[in-house]
Structures are given as C-alpha cells and as structure tokens.
Amino acid sequence: MMKNILVVGGAGYIGSHMCKYLAKEGYIPIVLDNLIYGHRKAVRWGPFMEGSIADTVLLRKVFSEYQITAVMHFAAFCYVGESVEDPAKYYRNNVANTINLLDVMLERNVYNFIFSSSCATYGEPIKIPITEQHPQYPINPYGRTKLIVEQVLDDYRSSYGLRSVSLRYFNAAGADPDGELGEDHTPETHLIPIVLQTALGQREEVNIFGDDYPTRDGTCMRDYIHVVDLAQAHFLALQRLLGGSNGGAYNLGNGRGNSVKEVIEVARNITGKSIPSKITERRPGDPAVLVSSSKNAIKELGWEPQFQDLHSIIETAWRWHRNHPKGYKT
Predict the structure, then answer these.
(1) Is residue 33 within 8 Å of 8, Cβ to Cβ?
(2) 3-state percent breakdown (helix, strand, coil) of the chain, nearest 5
(3) pLDDT of residue 330
(4) Hey, how many other C-beta atoms are within 10 angstroms of the C-beta on 26?
(5) Residues pairing with 321 in the sheet
(6) β pairing state of 258-259 and 221-222
(7) What is the per-residue pLDDT for 178?
(8) In percent, how much of the chain has pLDDT > 90?
C-alpha cells in the first residue's frame, strides 16, 4: 500500500521539490499550504488542501481523510531581516503553530516527523566546518525559532515517543533538473536567483555586501546545497524513522564554500551575460564564512549529494529562471 506523507509548506520552494521526490519513490504527498509564500502551480504530485497549521480543525480533517504515515514540515517563515523587525510573527508561526501540528499528530497517533531546520541555529561560527556538535547560539529570531522547535522535538521524543529528524540546511539553491520546479520568492533575498534575475535584465545590478572579509576574495563565503539533494536527505531521514530510529539532527551542505564573487562569475560563464555588480556596505550579522560538515548525514543516512559543484547548481537554476522569467506566473 502506498504511504501518505503530509507535507506542510509543500507548495513552497523546497517543499514542492520534496513532493516530486516522494512521488518518484512511490509515496503520496498530501500538501497543506496557506499559499502566503507557496504557489498552487507547484503542487502537482498529490492532493492539495489550502490552509494553515494553526487551524486545528483543518489539521484534524486532513488526518481523518488520509491515513498519514509521517509529516514533513516546510511551513516556516524564513526571512531573517523580517524576523528582527517582527519577531512575534515568527514565534507565532514557526513555534506556536508547529506545536499545534505536533499535538494533532499525537492525537492521531502519527509519530514520524521530519523538520526543516537551519544552520541559523548555530549563530556566529566558532570553528569551520560547522559540525552538529557546534554550540547553538542563534543571533536572530528566525534562528531562535528553529532552535526552539528542535528543543521541543527533543522533549516530545523523550516524553511522548515522537520520532523526529531535524535537518539543518546551509544555503539551498538550484532547481528541478527537469525544469518543472524552481525558486520563486517575493521578495527574493537569495543570492543565486538575484544574480540570475540580473542576468535576465530584471535587476540593474547585484549588490555585494562588503569586500573586506577575511576570505580569498574579500566577499562572504557560503555552502550551497542543491534542492534535490535536500529532498534526497529528507527521504533518507524518513526511511530511517520508518525503520525504527528515534531520529536526531543532521547538517546538510556540500562541505565547501563559494564566495559572492565566485557565484557571480560562474553565473556569467553559464548565462553569457555581463551581470553588473556593485560593492556596498556590509550587512550587520553576516559571518565571513559558513561551511558545513555533513559527514554524519553521509555516514548515518547514506546521503549521496548529486550536485556537488557550483556550476551544476547554478546551471539548473538558470534553466528554470530563463524559461520562467516571471516565476510560476510565466
């Protein structure tokens, strides 16, 4: 019998790629999304219910209509700057609403949960690469909400038997290699889509926030991980839970850093466009380097990232943006 997986936030960037991956593996993704940031056109591989995880009545309806095997959570708000300006919005959605979802799961005897966490739980890095044992001292409300949920999951595991895996992403990037799905945010804050929008003439230039960092070219370095590789890791985490594991936490990154200037240069080579850029002032709170150690995910989950070089990541993203210049409205 095919298993139903509830994917909250399944109409969003990572969630939609997850749904396609689940369907390919023989599972049925049941999507619940309020479409504040998600896209109805990204839901193609299973039933869709519009609404929020804050809605207990709706959640009970979903669990009544479908025999849910596990839940995957992609429904958090994720703009760091906004979380500083309006922390209540983030604590309400990312923490309180998640607890609401967990409680309905327990009420309906569903005990497998995959959580989309973040490297933002670590805060300023003390040592590179960052391992799962790195101290977690988030420096913004967004990161704190992710850490709080991880702590809630630890308590729910020990007290209620809820099995969970928290996956701490570094910089999600790229797009579906088949060209069916891509990254479409409003506002867009991620570097690679901003660079590609500039290549398409939708922006005048790319702002580089500081070029005096202690890195090889003076610009910040980040660890970019392809969205399909993220989906693979979630699937492997699901298999681990279904096999009886109590779960845990894993970093997801490629284990190497690329600078802002390197991203722009690779994009110029792929697109054949000049992509103007301008050096501006540093942004407060931007660490010079954020690079992951994903050895535990590789060893314990059997994770094998397929898109390990920046060129292949940007190439898939460019294919999406070139063919969907207005995103899902194209």
Answers:
(1) yes
(2) 40, 20, 40
(3) 79
(4) 8
(5) none
(6) antiparallel
(7) 95
(8) 96
The encoded tokens of residue 33 equal 């999304």
4-173+224-252 and 191-222+255-329 share one fold: no
* Helices 260-271 + 310-323 axis angle, to 10: 60
Give me 63's structure tokens. 């669990």
Residue 1 has a pLDDT of 60
How many angstroms separate the CA atoms of 77 and 83, rounded?
A: 8
Q: What count of other Cβ atoms lies within 10 Å of the Cβ of residue 198?
A: 22
Residue partners of 330: CB distance under 8 A and separation at least 6: 323, 324
Neighbours of 261 (CB within 10 A): 20
| Backbone dihedral angles phi then psi of residue 93, each to the nearest 5 degrees | -80, -50
> Which active-site residues does the annotation give?
142
* CB-based burial label for 226 (10 Å; 0-12, 13-18, 19+): buried
How far is residue 264's CA from residue 241's CA, in Å, rounded to a whole number? 39
DSSP code of residue 96: I
Residue burial 285-312, b: 16+ Cβ < 10 Å; e: rest: eebbbbbbbbebbeeebebebebeebee
Class of domain 4-173+224-252: alpha beta
Q: Cβ contacts of residue 36 below 8 Å, gap of 6+?
A: none
Parts of the chain with a pLDDT under 50: none
User: Tokens 């913004």 map to which residue?
Assistant: 140
Query: How is the chain split into domains, by residue range?
Result: 4-173+224-252, 191-222+255-329
Global model pTM greater than 0.85: yes
- For residue 313, the model assigns a pLDDT of 98
Residue 183 has a pLDDT of: 96
CATH number for domain 191-222+255-329, candidates 3.30.260.10, 3.90.25.10, 3.40.630.30, 3.40.50.1970? 3.90.25.10
